[in-house]
Amino acid sequence: MARSGVAHVTANLERRQLLDLPDADEEAESIGQVSSRSCDELLSAALSNPAILSDDKLALVGRRFWSVLTTQGLLARCRSLNHDTSERISRVRAAAGLRNEDEAIRRASIELRRCEQQRRDEEQSRFGGANAPPIPAWMDSLALRFKGERSLNTWGFIAFVDAEVQTLGAEQMDRFCKRYGFVLSDAMRDNGAYSKLLNRTWRLFLYKAPITASTSFRTGR
């Protein structure tokens, strides 16, 4: 291979490492699932006008073209990066001439959050109007506590994970948590949490039950 070709390969590898991008094959596979554009075209769009990109394209750019992470994988990545580390990485990328790529990824993430918040606000308004469901007394009491106690910033549901569910793999567990979260979101639409804005502060807390406690989660049994 000519010296110029070696230099190009080396530069491309360093670019991927500095921007935390996957290898070319995984990048192409991830992009192919949501777009016919190239990586550079998506980065350019995210930098100049991220609003023209759909949610799935914004999410792709925001996660740096990696495949979708499970909830556990996402939490692990977030815990590995504190503010100081992120700042140092950003300075290195800027020094290497990658400021635009880094900014494009940041703008894609911001735009995706804006779109998601807008949809939540629109949904919120539908449940807080004249036809809002009746609010139970305990929800009224909880809303008053949030207003009166500044230290109170989270409420939610506790779920004990039985022995059978504890054997699920990471992907199955991720699907279970998402589906259970949807069930709880539906419940909050009926109990007044949306009209009281408490749907924005709830959390789902999972605890492992003793291995002797088990109930089948499979249908038809």
Please explain how this structure is put together.
With about 220 residues, the protein is mainly α. The protein folds into two domains: about 5-125, no CATH class; about 135-210, no CATH class. Helices cover about 60% and strands about 5% of the residues. It has helices at about 5-20, 25-30, 40-50, 55-60, 70-80, 85-95, 100-125, 135-150, 170-190; strands at about 155-160, 200-210. Strands 1-2 form a two-stranded parallel sheet. Strand 1, helix 9 and strand 2 (about 200-210) form a beta-alpha-beta unit. Helix 3 crosses helix 7 and helix 4 packs across helix 7 (about 100-125). The longest helix has 28 residues, at about 100-125. The protein is globular. Mean pLDDT is about 75; it is low at about 1-10.
Beta-strand share of residues: 5-15%
Apparent shape? globular
Q: Report the order of strands and helices.
A: HHHHHHHHEHE
Report the C-alpha radius of gyration, rounded. Answer: 22 Å
Mean pLDDT: 76
Structural class: mainly alpha
As laid out across the biggest beta sheet, the strand order is 1-2
Kindly, what is the distance between the CA atoms of the first and last residues, rounded to a whole number of angstroms? Answer: 62 Å
Number of strand elements: 2
What percent of residues adopt helix (DSSP H or I)? 55-70%
Low-confidence stretches: 1-9
Number of helices: 9
How many domains in all? 2
Biggest beta sheet attributes = 2 strands, parallel
Keywords: Coiled coil
Coiled coil: 98-125
